[in-house]
Amino acid sequence: MTDLSIKTDAQSQDHEATDGFQLVIDALKLNGIDTIFGLPGIPITDLTRRAQANGMRVISFRHEQNAGNAAAIAGFMTRKPGICLTVSAPGFLNGLTALANATTNCFPMILISGSSEREVVDLQQGDYEEMDQLAIARPLAKAAFRVLHAEDIGVGIARAIRAALSGRPGGVYLDLPAKLFAQSVDAEAGRSSLIEVVDPAPRQIPAHDAVQRALDLLRGAKRPLIILGKGAAYAQADADIRALVERSRIPYLPMSMAKGLLPDTHEQSAAAARSYVLPQADVVMLIGARLNWLLSHGKGKTWGGKQAKAWGGQRFIQVDISPQEADSNVRIDAPLVGDIGSCVAALLAGMDASWPRPPAQWLAAIAERKDKNIAKMTETLAQNPTPMNFHSALNVVRDIVRANPHAYLVNEGANALDFTRSIVDMYQPRKRLDVGTWGVMGIGMGFAVAAAVVSGEPVIAIEGDSAFGFSGMEVETICRYGLPVCVVIFNNNGVYRGTDLNPTGGSDPAPTAFVKGARYDKLMEAFGGVGVHATTPAQLRAAMEDAIRTRKPTLVNAMIDETAGTESGRITSLNPASAKKK
Length: 582
Ligand code: ADP
Ligand code: TZD
Description:
The protein contains 25 helices and 19 strands. It is of the alpha/beta class.
């Protein structure tokens, strides 16, 4: 094999020396990290080459934000921090959105950026791509570190791994100035400076009295409900979570990325009766889910409002690793602080055969709503209008996912997101990867690349046409690495829909309108992938089946009725104009 290692002067004179490049690679490998998502350039180009030469997988992107998103979701999938490697200043800033998003979503990742020398940055002497990156990253990351000396690389990487994984996971920034990489260190001293992190995500055992408090509250509930969040999915305590739900017989709601933790077709799933169970439940147990905007902050009409107050209000149990999360929006009556695996095991241990079945009336009321809503949806999905709409297209996606439960489903957009979430059932844990806590556009292709690289399984990415645009250039990356990714663009000619007009009658299009009938499929063809223009559900089905069977990079441009979308999908109410009307 060609020797790609770039030797410093010191190394050529002394074979017992190592350098900063090598120590970064060795430290990552020592900790079981085998993949880097990044984009090369000064000063990290040789780091990418040498990482590859040292047997690591280096996935090179077209924009750092997508590499960062890939690293973040790899962290979610594997419980090892995903690594994103960027150049300084602009490359670093491009990666920063993904780092902040990872922190917000509790995904473990490490953004490693090369940087200019401290002496020049601190005197603001105008270096190539000069920026005080550490200061900028700090408020957006769970932790941020800089390493100045090669012998500290081991400590720097160890601290970054620990910070990313322990407690509530998050994004960590690691600043590596250019000079560090070429620093020469005695090989033995270098080796012994590296740290293999022991127990980076220590279990946090919940206190006995906190477990009892939670169990007592749950036992006395008349209308109990469990909400599973992406923290529960991340915890990889799948069998125990399922046992807890099934032993307690309590109906549950999965948050978006917790779909599939139990199959969505499970009889205890109350997803199809969401708007009924949230306001009616008297005791709600949150497992790895925050009471943020996605759950209407635990109050207001969604949660029963005044009506619930009349019967004493709703009570909450919250299982979370963060001791600060409880009471963030409403009172938490029984906080259960610990890692989800340990908490769920402790709850299960307290549920013996005498555990009461939830009142039959509650279960029957939910079943009735569920059946009604499912029947209504089945009817809607069976329609076959021309042009195709979200429902007729998603009816196809639903079948394809049912037939391929091992496939990953990446999803972003507004209507394309909301309809997919509610229509497409998931059957296995951690298979649905989406816009998460921020509702951020642009995760699509980064998530799709990482899902395919990490798992080797087929990936289906359901994308609004606007959403796709944020990371669309990565179809080249998908083709370059030959990944089994099938991108389906729901093309309705614009943001939310394609019908807006410029009210002045001027020639500029409306802010939300795109080129009509854009041929996104040609973009995939440009790089050697398969592009399909689909105007009917039958064409969409055939293209998706082919993509899954052949594992060829595929982009299906699914033409959707441009009048079909609603403003902001399901969150129209958050638009300031709608808020004013309230
Ligand atoms: P969702 O958006 O699905 O509702 P959130 O991201 O709001 O989920 O909540 C995830 C929660 O899970 C966070 O509060 C986080 O602290 C918690 N969490 C993450 N990992 C673990 C774990 N291993 N054990 C316990 N809690 C965890
Ligand atoms: N920029 C970023 C980074 N994130 C965002 N969420 C937005 C802008 C605002 N936004 C949404 O919240 S959804 C969306 C934007 C631009 C795109 C919706 O259009 P789409 O999907 O074509 O992707 P639908 O199916 O047509 O609604």
